[in-house]
Amino acid sequence: MTTVVNGVNVEALLGAREVLKGAPEAAQFTWRASSAWRHGVESTVTIQNYFGLGQEQSHKEESVFEADHPEIFAATDHGITPIEYLLVGLASCLTAGVASVAENRGIKLHSVEATLEGHHDIRGILGADSDVRNGFNDIKVTFSIDADASKEDIEALVAQSQKRSAVFDALTNPTNVTVEVA
Amino acid sequence: MTTVVNGVNVEALLGAREVLKGAPEAAQFTWRASSAWRHGVESTVTIQNYFGLGQEQSHKEESVFEADHPEIFAATDHGITPIEYLLVGLASCLTAGVASVAENRGIKLHSVEATLEGHHDIRGILGADSDVRNGFNDIKVTFSIDADASKEDIEALVAQSQKRSAVFDALTNPTNVTVEVA
Question: What ipTM was assigned to the predicted interfaces of this complex?
Answer without folding.
Answer: 0.97
